[in-house]
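Lab notebook, design round three. We kept the backbone fixed and only want residue identities now. Task for the bench partner: fill in a sequence for the structure below.
Input structure tokens:
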């Protein structure tokens, strides 16, 4: 939790920051002085996250909002700025996932993931823009190896996260002159997360995933948070438009091995 990078008097907004990797990111910024705002659908998760984040001794607040609802997202940003001032760091990480063959899911199932991951990211980026500190804001999209590693049972997530990385790269160009930096972090397989519970549901699959990671271990939410704090620190001031894997080298080895094993468990 202790980082060489400090965020006192900085406003950090984490979309989807109430569980898993994103909550880990929020906690690390709070532990290092940041005033952290989280937003997700469940009011209970928002309340619990705010309680945890406040325990670090700095300011925290939260909003119950669905990233598919542009007006609700816009409201969260304007209320944040009224209370905490302009946003220094934006992390956009709300996402949904389930394993299903493209032809086994309904059009609405495919659309749900596109709407949360891709359109929702656009909503977050679009609504935050007037409130980002210029110059100086750091924007981080949470991507996934699916953005560039094709995986069975993940057509919806692959399509959505590839789009998220293209948002990173196009907005790094459009916002560069205002000194807003935009980067993606690509987490690998991260232990104790909802994502891994859904895609690696058995001890055998988890073990196979571990073996397929060059560093031979799963990552932690702190690993991802450390990268987020680095990218939001002054030493990263010339990094923009980067797609940064934090995955123990997993994407180099194909990563799709996880889904090859899961396919065998799916109904024919
Ligand atoms: C096929 C499914 C399905 C499944 C839902 N659907 N689950 N289809 N297989 N397992 C279909 C539903 O039948 C419905 O279609 C449509 O998807 C929308 O479902 P709802 O439940 O109405 O949607 P909603 O309440 O909006 O929930 C969205 C969700 C849900 C994505 C389906 O799972 C969710 O809220 N997930 C958030 C948490 C999460 O997924 N965390 C993991 C992120 S990990 P019909 O046609 O019936 O209406 C990640 C990357 C991990 O992103 C990478 C690891 C390496
Ligand atoms: P998680 O715990 O389910 O986190 C998802 C977060 O997004 C939750 O806070 C959830 O809260 C929120 N959320 C979901 N749908 C939302 C919506 N429509 N509107 C607003 N908020 C919404 O999952 P995780 O595994 O930690 O994943 C976090 C991020 O890391 C995701 O972007 C995922 O794609 C990425 N990732 C994860 C892994 C992994 O190994 N787990 C690997 C690569 C990438 P509510 O339910 O309250 O809305």
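Proposed sequence:
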């Amino acid at each position: 939790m202790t980082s060489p990078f400090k965020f006192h008097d900085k406003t950090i907004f984490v979309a989807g920051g109430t569980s898993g990797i994103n909550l880990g990111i929020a906690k690390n910024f709070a532990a290092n002085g940041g005033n952290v705002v989280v937003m997700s659908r469940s009011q209970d998760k928002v309340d619990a996250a705010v309680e945890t984040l406040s325990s670090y001794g700095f300011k925290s607040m939260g909003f119950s909002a669905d990233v598919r609802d542009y007006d609700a997202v816009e409201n969260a940003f304007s209320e944040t700025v009224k209370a905490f001032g302009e946003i220094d760091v934006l992390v956009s990480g709300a996402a949904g996932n389930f394993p299903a063959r493209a032809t086994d899911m309904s059009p609405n199932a495919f659309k749900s993931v596109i709407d949360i991951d891709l359109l929702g990211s656009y909503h977050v980026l679009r609504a935050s823009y007037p409130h980002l500190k210029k110059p100086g804001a750091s924007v981080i999209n949470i991507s996934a190896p699916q953005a560039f590693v094709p995986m069975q049972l993940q057509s919806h997530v692959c399509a959505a996260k590839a789009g998220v990385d293209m948002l990173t790269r196009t907005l790094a160009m459009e916002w560069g002159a205002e000194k807003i930096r935009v980067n993606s972090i690509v987490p690998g397989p991260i232990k104790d997360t909802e994502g891994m519970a859904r895609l690696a549901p058995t001890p055998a699959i988890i073990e196979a995933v571990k073996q397929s990671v060059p560093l031979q271990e799963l990552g932690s939410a702190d690993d991802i948070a450390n990268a987020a704090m680095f990218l939001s620190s002054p030493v990263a001031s010339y990094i923009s438009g980067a797609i940064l894997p934090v995955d123990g080298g997993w994407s180099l080895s194909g990563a799709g091995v996880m889904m090859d094993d899961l396919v065998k468990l799916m109904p024919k």
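Keep this in mind before ordering anything: The mean pLDDT is 97.
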